[in-house]
Write a sequence for this structure.
């Protein structure tokens, strides 16, 4: 009587836990903020503007939450002048 063949069951380990975060490119961030890409780049170079993540020496991305926080920080409440 032949032995039953064992199936080679290969299971990959589960992927590492990942915190869901949405990132956008500098072009998308500039559009979201209503700015030009050169303006956003210049703001970043002088330390202004929203927080960003430098993925590599030539690649920068922005977290959507950081863009929202930046917009909130720039909100101006008008005052009544007398």
């Amino acid at each position: 009587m032949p032995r039953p063949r064992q199936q080679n069951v290969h299971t990959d380990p589960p992927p590492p836990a990942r915190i869901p975060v949405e990132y956008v490119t500098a072009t998308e961030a500039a559009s979201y903020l209503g700015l030009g890409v050169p303006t956003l780049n210049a703001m970043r170079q002088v330390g202004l503007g929203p927080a960003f993540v430098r993925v590599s020496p030539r690649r920068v991305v922005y977290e959507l939450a950081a863009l929202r926080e930046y917009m909130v920080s720039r909100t101006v409440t008008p005052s009544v002048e007398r």
Observations:
- The mean pLDDT is 86.
- Residues 23-73 form one domain.
- The chain has three helices and three strands.
- The two ends are 102 Å apart (CA to CA).
